[in-house]
Automatic annotation (TrEMBL), chains A, B:
Any GO molecular function: threonine synthase activity
Top-level lineage group: Bacteria
Domain Tryptophan synthase beta chain-like PALP, residue spans: 74-380
EC assignment: 4.2.3.1
Cofactors demanded by this protein: pyridoxal 5'-phosphate
Gene3D superfamilies for this protein: 3.40.50.1100
Entry keyword annotation includes Lyase: yes
Identification of the protein by name: Threonine synthase
Pfam families the UniProt entry points to: PALP
InterPro entries listed in its UniProt record: Ser/Thr_Dehydratase, TrpB-like_PALP, TrpB-like_PALP_sf
């Protein structure tokens, strides 16, 4: 048995191959690169039963992850997040089997930890000493902290509107934090110039190929947690869309290994905010790429991405699984965020709440049927977004009886 | 096999017994009550191997928890938090085998989730409809959210200085939040009056017996994660001290079951802040009870408890394991909080950081030896305490190159 069965990188657009032993960013043709494995050997040498005695973290799938040597793993205990039943909410929506995959229970309180754990580990394996990235907040926080653990220096460029707490996370990690008066697209331009000038490794979304491998473990875990019987529908809050691409890749790989049935793939739903819905627009128009969404705005800051580099991969995953793309309003997002807390006891982030608003909407439309099993993916903790719970509490005297 | 082997409640002071099938608070004599199990039957019918295939949450120990019926469990996926190696920090401190049990990776981002998961589940089993408690923030947040999941109404009284984010958590859960211009001791008085008047169930620290059962799972997990070979030293940030009492109870129960050796119990260290160190004072004076600490103050708000109801149990655990009690300054707490993030990539809470400051101090004093295995217990996420990371970042123009 090999620790990892990683074989090479390939371009999903022009099919060119690259080595996993050198630092790689985009393909020459401009497309993101994807990671391939020796599926034939894996199918022969790796079984579901091998997983039983392993630790409850994402490294339990190390054969299907890109890190070749165990000693390069940089871990803070990430993965195997809970898959919770949401029966009260399900009753209200009219969905008998409603579940939530809760990515709040992970280092840094956001699903970004998965991408950075695998990305930073592989960067360490490749000898990276300094990395740089633009971020809407949570990714920068996660990469800074994992990089600190790996002894890698990081440079993080963040819009001033990103969640305040993520500035603290980047700062406390000892990273170089740059806050700008612009959007993540502006931050991306500055990073691109800087990596060209200083030789830092660019770990922008999908510009390095390994973040997606971390994210795909959400799909692997969902499959294993449901004993390899996939749900009917998975709703995912879609900004850059890496998680959705990753989950789809995971399922295709599990089909390749013969661990799940190809005809049983869940319908994947890309959920966006009405104020920033380029994927939804492209889906409605039957297109395979999205257009830049001007003047984007939403309270769910993590999905404020006007044009995702991997839009074509997101749309492919949606089309190939007979899924859909749906936009929800900020009002319904914030309403469902409260609703999930009051009925189910989970204080989730607005991006996660968007998937519940979408599930409710799709159930009303009849696109989701009552008896279908449905997973809403909550990408992070509500406590990272205090401003989404406005409150006005007056301080009372300690001598006044209740 | 029974789901739970719980037998009865007993008073550690006057030895009076009580039923686990009625709502109970303190003993008639004023002491907290502890939970007892049918250890004889457990020893015959339950083995370590039974745990292997179970979910990675604290309910894996259901035989040694007080909830009798599985359907009464109220869970958000809590438990089996990571036990991380801290090798860089260990090198610096001169401790070869330094570990951190990270209670940030749990619902609500604080170890309080354990006590509330078990406490709320048992309250549900006993038919509680409304509960009330004073809180320094995190416990109130956790109990409110678990109570919401259980359909139980909660009333939470909090000092105005408690972490702001915990107000939002209580509010979003739909609980009745009361913020007062006093300390947790003042909040406790108001709760006492109100439960007498309205008949709410009082879930103040140690006033109901089940919170400690949730907290003891930290001890069970540490033992299992280390394959039933306990460390030499465990450092615990001590306010109310329930976790320390719980960990000690867990180890004694494991001895009773024959799963660990009695002579191998770790030395338990109660860590307090210099601005609020009643347990440390009592320990130095060789006393078995503490005195009320006037004008207490510390940046580690969760351990600002001037007089703990369970002080005598904390001191017993310290004395019986040849442990100690040690106070650290707020300066060293905040320094180590940054240090842990920069060297190990974990953004921990100030209470957790206090245990690292204490480990460093005890190593310098020679109380901890180089080759000893040492666990620092981090009780929550740093992101709940943004004010502990002051920063001054100027916003730059998006057109200015890096």
């Amino acid at each position: 048995m090999r620790f990892s069965y990683v074989s090479h990188l390939y371009c999903p657009k022009c099919s060119k191959n690259y080595s996993v032993d050198d630092k790689q960013n985009l393909c020459e043709c401009g497309s993101p690169l994807l990671v391939s494995y020796d599926y034939k050997a894996l199918k022969e040498e790796w079984t579901k039963e091998d997983l039983v005695h392993r630790e409850a973290d994402l490294w339990r799938y190390h054969e299907l992850l890109p890190v070749k040597k165990e000693e390069n793993i940089v871990s803070l205990g990430e993965g195997m997040t809970p898959l919770l039943t949401m029966s009260e909410l399900g009753k209200e929506y009219g969905i008998t089997n409603l579940l939530m995959k809760d990515e709040g229970l992970i280092p840094t309180g956001s699903f970004k930890a998965r991408g950075s754990a695998v990305g930073v580990s592989k960067a360490k394996e490749l000898g990276v000493e300094e990395l740089a990235m633009p971020t809407n907040g949570n990714a920068g926080a996660a990469w800074s902290l994992y990089a600190a653990r790996a002894g890698i220096k990081s440079h993080v460029v963040m819009p001033e509107d990103a969640p305040m707490i993520t500035r603290q996370e980047v700062h406390v990690a000892g990273a170089d934090l740059i806050v700008i008066d612009g959007l993540i697209s502006d931050a991306g331009k500055l990073v691109k110039e800087a990596v060209d000038q200083y030789g830092w490794f660019d770990v922008s979304t999908l510009k390095e190929p390994y973040r997606i491998e971390g994210k795909k473990t959400m799909g692997l875990e969902i499959a294993e947690q449901l004993k390899w019987n996939l749900p009917d529908v998975i709703l995912y809050p879609t900004g850059g869309g890496v998680g959705l691409i990753g989950i789809y890749k995971a399922f295709k790989e599990l089909v390749e290994l013969g661990w799940i049935e190809p005809e049983k793939l869940p319908r994947l739903v890309a959920v966006q905010a009405e104020g920033c819905a380029p994927i939804v627009k492209a889906f409605k128009e039957g297109k395979r790429d999205s257009e830049f969404w001007t003047d984007s705005t939403t309270a769910a800051f993590g999905i404020n991405v006007p044009k995702a580099l991997g839009d074509f991969l997101v749309l492919e995953a949606v089309y190939e699984t007979n899924g859909c793309a749906v936009a929800v309003s900020d009002d319904t997002i914030l309403t469902e965020q409260h609703h999930v807390a009051e009925l189910e006891g989970a204080f989730i982030c607005p991006e996660g709440a968007a998937t519940f608003a979408a599930a409710k909407k799709l159930r009303i439309d009849g696109w989701i049927k009552e008896e279908e099993s449905v997973i809403c993916l909550n990408t992070g903790m509500g406590i990272k977004y205090p401003e989404t719970v406005p409150m006005n509490v007056s301080v009372r005297s300690k001598t006044e009886r209740l």
